[in-house]
Amino acid sequence: GLAPVILLVLRPTFGTPDAAAFSSGGRRVGARLEGFVQAALVASAVATLLLLLLQATLVAELTGGRIDSKSIQGVFETSFGRWTGIRLLLLFGLGLVLVGKVRDLSMASGSGGGAGRLWWAIWMVLAGAVLVTNSLAGHAASAEPVPLSVANDALHLIAGSVWFAGIVVVA
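^ that's the sequence the OP posted. Answer follows.
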């Protein structure tokens, strides 16, 4: 949700005719955005790992055993486990694309620097894919018709993330 907010709200704000006066503000905002991105990636990865561990605990409880490789494997044999595992890989990919680069690339404007369209596209596609894994791993994937249900849920999550990112950035 942060990428559209940066592209549509923050960059135009700091790209005014008096851009030189706003350059220090743009750097401060870029540093703040970098912190948000890093915190969000860490929180998402930790929450996803805890979710997998919780599911492994439930599998272990059902089989009368303890949490071990069998219970973890049991989680990954489900659709939920596979999509949650894919979410972890996507979060890793987002980390490679974003960490250490948001500050320098997101608020830069003009021909002297900034991210190209490919960087923005990769960010938005990976972030959207992370959100879609929630839909594919959850209840939306079990409702009929599945494609419509998953698309509706994914659109809802994407709109909610853009709304929430806008509130966080403005605050």
